[in-house]
Amino acid sequence: MLGRSCLTFVLLAAAVTCAVAQNAPPWTEDCRKSTYPPSGPTYRGAVPWYTINLDLPPYKRWHELMTDKAPAIRIMVNSLKNVVNAFVPSGKLMQIVDQKLPGLLGNFPGPFEEEMKGIAAVTNIPLGEIITFNIFYEFFTICTSIITEDKEGHLLHARNMDFGIFLGWNVNNNTWTITEELKPLTVNLDFQRNNKTVFKASSFAGYVGMVTGFKPGLLSLTLNERFSINGGYLGILEWLLGKKDAMWIGFITRLVLENSTSYEEAKNILTKTKIMAPAYFILGGNQSGEGCVITRDRKESLDVYELDPKQGRWYLVETNYDRWKNPLFLDDRRTPTKMCLNRTSQENVSIATLYDILSTKPVLNKLTVFTTLMDVTKGQYETYLRDCPDPCIGW
Known about the structure:
By secondary structure, this protein is of the alpha+beta class. The protein has helices at 4-22, 63-87, 92-104, 112-123, 127-135, 177-182, 232-240, 249-259, 263-272, 334-344, 351-358; strands spanning 43-46, 49-53, 144-149, 155-162, 169-170, 175-176, 186-193, 196-204, 212-215, 219-225, 279-284, 291-296, 301-306, 315-318, 368-375, 380-386.
């Protein structure tokens, strides 16, 4: 994970490059209206559904999905290899990944190691490269998550998944290469046991952790990256050196979605478990006031900020910055999100108005892969692929 000073420098350079390329200021748009149901130039299409049968052995659970998506994931992995080889042209780093990484990163918790081995077998991609794909979330994600509560105490949870910053800018069509290659890999997943839904999630084919999902009738959960000097690279280094007492953040969210039986249980796990990388866990329940943003360091919780509608706190917004700090001035998605929520008002908040907000630039940006809308109480779960036509900020 990038240090703050390095991130600031690279974002500044990217902002100048993107603004010049697009001949436009980075953010100019007022709050969007009437964008739902999705249509028009910001809507790429619906996301397909697949069933993941948890009654199958872990090695076999992803076979159907990966058979369908193997060509697309091979394109993605090759692009990641090209990025790595651009920094280490000899190809030796990828050779280490292919030959050494599976052994160095053995003993993943629960079913994850066997699931990744099954994915590698079906796609004919080296296991080390599948593992690399599964840890990239720790480094290259910028997201926006929202939880709201209406006047009747009804909770809604929504997010934009933004992924691929610094991973190859295509000057011909003003897009991030990896962002575009992730869109064909985006899937909705219905995890079932005994032919009954355990939880639903949106993810990328080949990634066995979860960053967006809900247990119908019980809870919703999204994961946002947190920039910190004490970042994910330190957690990975400790793992490589044999200290394996921390959870990968995508794995802990999946375990919470699969196993938690209440909002409070989920909050306790996400607050107290040691994790590999700093993160924000955005958790929603099914009762008034059951919503929080958990700001995590790798080893402890720094803050749990909760809905409090009686005190006027009827929504929570998390991008990628601690709530008590100002966002990086080049990447302020928090302010427009809150402004649009305030204009919407608690009386009018809905799935449709949340989609409007997440369609407003720069909340919608060149990194946005998909938008997910969740209503836990009604069991409503929708995910849509997104585009951000020019002029549009580069992240």
